[in-house]
Structure formats: C-alpha cells, structure tokens
Amino acid sequence: MKGRVFAIVGPSGAGKDTLLGGLAAAGLAHRVRRVITRPPRHGDEPFDGVSEGEFARHLAAGAFVLHWRAHGLAYGLPRAGFQPAGRGRDVVFNGSRAVLAEAARVFADLRVILVEAPPELRAARIATRGREAGGDIAARLARETGDLPPGLPVIRVLNDGTPEQGIARLIAALCPGDRRAGP
C-alpha cells in the first residue's frame, strides 16, 4: 500500500509549520524536512540550513525531488523524505504554490492543503517571529500568493484560533472520524 502525499501551502503567517508539527507529533504523517539556504534560528520550522554552494551540490547530485526559489532563498525537498510513502505512510511537506504543478507531475495522487487565516492574525504571527519589521510585515502580507493550479484536490483548513484548534481541524480534514480531531 502506498501512502498519500500532501502539500501544505498558504500565505505567510497562516500557521503551516505549527499545523505540520502537530500532525507529525500526533504520529499521523511523516513530515519532509526541507533544505533551505539560510541558517536555522530558534522558533523556526525544523529544516536543514545550507549555504548556496551546498544547495547547488545537492541539486547537481539529484538529491531533491522538488526545489524552488522564493524570498531570496532556495528550498529543496530531499528524495529520501518521501520514502515513507512507499511504505504506506502518509507524507506531508511545506511547499510553495509555485511548485505545485511540478509536484503534481511527480506525485500523481498529490493532495493540497491550503491553510488560511485572517490578515490581522497573520500579521501578529509574523511579528512574533521577530524576523521582519512592521513595514516588511505589511509588504509580506500584501504579496500576491497566486492561484493554485487547476485540477488539484484542495482541502481548505481555517487556522484562526489556538494551535490546538488548527491542528484538530487539519487532522479532521486528513483523517475524518479520527477521535483526535475533536468536534
């Protein structure tokens, strides 16, 4: 049996990493650890920070199943991160709308989870990270996120409450009837 593959996408501050962490902690899916060209900082998602040169070497060696550039950084999803799907385990990854069409070509059964939250809540979450100043936060919120490629199955998850509520909504969307999903 093959596991399902889910791409988690959404605007900055929607809470994608929080929901992914909760889903992985519940043992319901394997989270693919991204490779990003920046050093990790306290409070970041779990990822492997590499230099541009290291990223280029990984890319040339064919280590990534998907890769893209956004916000001046390079992102890659290691092939090894998807191996649990071949063993029947569901796999989730934090992706980008820009790579979804390619992801759908790579994973014929790709499902997309679009995490949404109101702009004012997203702004507060971004401010809490401490990576951007007020003007940068406003610019980030104003960025066009783009449409999703047509024809992909999309599950929308509203993440406008506590982390526990958001995680429960994500679990309910992925695993209907799971008692951990709450009411």
Automatic annotation (TrEMBL):
Domain Guanylate kinase/L-type calcium channel beta subunit: 2-175
Domain of life where this protein originates: Bacteria
This protein's UniProt keywords: ATP-binding, Kinase, Nucleotide-binding, Transferase
GO MF annotation, one: ATP binding
Keyword check for Transferase: yes
Pathway assigned to this chain's UniProt record: Metabolic intermediate biosynthesis; 5-phospho-alpha-D-ribose 1-diphosphate biosynthesis; 5-phospho-alpha-D-ribose 1-diphosphate from D-ribose 5-phosphate (route II): step 3/3
Recorded catalytic activity of this chain's protein: alpha-D-ribose 1,5-bisphosphate + ATP = 5-phospho-alpha-D-ribose 1-diphosphate + ADP
Binding site residues for ATP: 10-17
UniProt EC number: 2.7.4.23
Uppermost EC category: transferase
InterPro entries per UniProt: GK/Ca_channel_bsu, P-loop_NTPase, PhnN
Biological processes, Gene Ontology terms: 5-phosphoribose 1-diphosphate biosynthetic process; organic phosphonate metabolic process
Protein family membership: Belongs to the ribose 1,5-bisphosphokinase family.
Role: Catalyzes the phosphorylation of ribose 1,5-bisphosphate to 5-phospho-D-ribosyl alpha-1-diphosphate (PRPP).
Name the record gives this protein: Ribose 1,5-bisphosphate phosphokinase PhnN
Organism field: Rhodovulum strictum
Gene behind this protein: phnN
